[in-house]
Specification:
Blueprint (H helix, E strand, L loop, with lengths): L3 H21 L2 E5 L11 E4 L6 H11 L5 E3 L7 E10 L3 H7 L4 E11 L4 E13 L2 H18 L2
Parallel strand pairs: 2-3, 2-4
Antiparallel strand pairs: 1-6, 4-5, 5-6
Length: 152
């Protein structure tokens, strides 16, 4: 026999676990091992990244007003951004029972000074249950790159 109070408790536990998973999934990690600063106005080339993430990243750099110049010719740049990105779409059960089709997105970028081949900055982010997955991950990368440049 199912007790009414027990069902509410299980539902509350399930909701709490889901919310904890969402909150824990919205995190990023910045790696700043180099003492070199990325100067304002530096020319940065964004290498092609699987799934078109490079396009999202270029748009995010412009939207977040990162003080760099994005160029399309690697030979005219001082820095290069490379990275990886992946998207996990919502499964049928999540779409059917929870009514959401949000994705889980992972992205990681590194900025290399081309003259010295030194990695001057790296950032990785995980956006769980995100309605604008790649865009949101790219904006997080751009925001933290801007903080690196501005010394925040």
């Amino acid at each position: 026999m199912i007790q009414p109070g027990r069902n509410c408790g299980l539902a509350a536990l399930g909701l709490a676990l889901a919310l904890c998973g969402v909150a824990a999934g919205q995190e990023g990690k910045s790696v700043d091992q180099s003492k070199r600063a990325i100067e304002r106005g530096s020319r940065i080339y964004i290498a092609p990244i699987e799934g078109g993430f490079d396009t999202f990243l270029a748009a995010a750099i412009i939207k977040k007003q990162v003080p760099v110049v994005v160029v399309t010719d690697r030979t005219k740049s001082e820095y290069e951004i490379t990275g990886i990105a992946s998207t996990e779409r919502a499964g049928w059960a999540k779409m059917l029972f929870m009514g959401v089709d949000n994705s889980n997105d992972l992205a990681s970028i590194k900025v290399v000074e081309l003259k010295s081949s030194e990695v001057v900055y790296g950032y990785a982010v995980r956006k769980a249950n995100s309605p604008r997955g790649k865009q949101s991950a790219a904006e997080a990368c751009a925001k933290h790159l801007k903080e690196k440049i501005e010394g925040k």
